[in-house]
Amino acid sequence: MSIQLYNTLTKTKEPFKPLEEGKVKIYLCGPTVYDLLHIGNFRGAIFFNLLRNWMEFSGLNVTFAYNYTDVDDKIIKKANEEGVESSVISERFIEEFEKDFNRLGLRKHDYNPKVTEFMPQIIKFVEDLITNGKAYVIDGEVFYSIDSFEGYGKLSGKKLDELEAGQRVEVDQRKKNPFDFVLWKPSKAGEPSWDSPWGGGRPGWHIECSAMIQALLGDTIDIHGGGIDLIFPHHENEIAQGEGRTGKCYCNTWVHNEFINLSDEKMSKSLGNVITGRSFMDKWHPEILKYLFLSVHYRSQLAINDDKIRGAISALARIYSSLKNAGDVLNFEGGGVVNKAFAQTLSQHDAKIKKYMDDDFNTGEVMASVFEVVRGFNALNLQKKAKDINSKPTAEAFLAWMKKYGDLMALFGQVPSKFLLELDDILIADRKLDRAKIEELVAKRNEAREAKDWAAADQFRDELSAMGIELQDGNPDRQWSVSKG
Q1: Is-contact 331 391, C-beta < 8 A?
Q2: Which end of the chain has fewer CB atoms within 10 angstroms, the N or the C?
Q3: What pLDDT does 166 receive?
Q4: Where are the beta strands (DSSP E) in 204-250?
Q5: Is residue 245 part of a domain?
C-alpha cells in the first residue's frame, strides 16, 4: 500500500495502513438537514467520493458511512415556525439533499444513518461514559467531563488554559469545567423528546456521530473526514467520547478539507454571500462544480469567482471537444493498433496519476495530466485521418483512458455534443446574449457567402465575433459556438 494521507491528528503526511488488511472503514460528517446545502458543504461529498473510489481502485474493500443530522436546534426552529413536527423538516431536506447529490453523479454510500434511528445506541453510549467516570448528570442533563480525558486537545492542538470560556455565551455555572460539553439535555416544550434514564430529552450534537460510528463501524475506524471547521470542537469531542468509552483509539487518520471562498471572501451567512449547491448547479452545471473542487488540492482554500468559473468552462470545453472528436472517429474503419507514441503517453500519465493520487490526493496535478493526454490526442488530428486504420483504436484507447479517470472523479461522463451545447446555453444566459439575433446574423452571413458578397459576409462575421461567437465553417453539426476563452 503506497497511499500517503495528511493526518490532522499527527500534522503530517504518513503512509496509510488499514486496521484490517485489505479493508477500510470511512466516516464522513454529513449535513444537518434544515435547509438546502451551500456549495461549501459539497466539497467534502465530492472529494471523499474520489478518496473512496481511489482506495477501491487500489484494491481495498471500503465501507463508507455518511450521516444525516436530523435532530438539531435549527431543525426545531424551522419546524416551530412552520407549525410541523421536526421530522417533517428533516425528511424534506434529506430528500432535497439527495436530489442535489444525485445531480452530481456521486456514488451512494454504504450507510446514511440518521440520528433519530440510533437513540438506543446513543443512550447506551452516554450510560457507558457515566459508568467510566467520564460524564456526570445534573438536573437531567449529562455533561462530558473533559478533565477526565487526558488527551483532550490532541486533534486541534488547543490547550484549555488558552481558551476563553464564555466568550460569546454565559457559562453554565453547574459545570465542573466551563468547557464540559453536553451529551444529553432535557427537551423543552415544542422540541422532540426521547425517554432516557435522565428523563425525557435529546442528544447533544457531538455524541451523535460517535454513537453512529461505533454502532456501524466498530470501536476504531480508519478514516474520519469533514471540513476543517469541524476539527474543534466537534471532532475533538468525538475523540474524547469514543476513547473515553472504549479506551481504544477512536480513529487512525483524520482527513479535513479546506473552506471555499466566494469572490475571495470566506463564505458565510453573516456576509450574505452564501450560494446553495442547487442554485450554483441551476445557473452553471454540476460538472463545473465538481471540476472546480477537484482542480485544486483538497487542503487548499478555493476561491470561487467569475474568473474561476469561466476558466472551468473553458477547461471542460477543451476536454469535451476532444471527447466528441474521439467519438466521431469511432465511425471510421478500424483493424489497426493504437498509435505507439500515444500509447506511451497514456502509460506515462497512468504512472503520474498514481503518484499524484497516492501523494495525499493531489488532484490539481491529476488534472494537469488529463490535459497533457487531451493535448496529445488533439495533436494527432485523427478526425481528418479516416483512412488510417490506426485512428479508431487510438480514439478508443483515449476514450477508455478518460472514462477510467472520469469515473473515479465523477467527471467527463456527459454526452459530449449535448454538454457542449449546454455550455453554450450557460454562457448565452450569463452574457445576456440574444440567441435569435445570433441565428439571424449567422443566416445572413450564409446568404452573403452564397451570393459571394464577401464584404457583407465579413461584416456579419465581425458582428458575431464582437458578441463572442465563433463560427465553425465546414462543421455539419454546428455552425457556431460561444467563445469559451
Answers
A1: no
A2: C
A3: 46
A4: 221-227
A5: yes
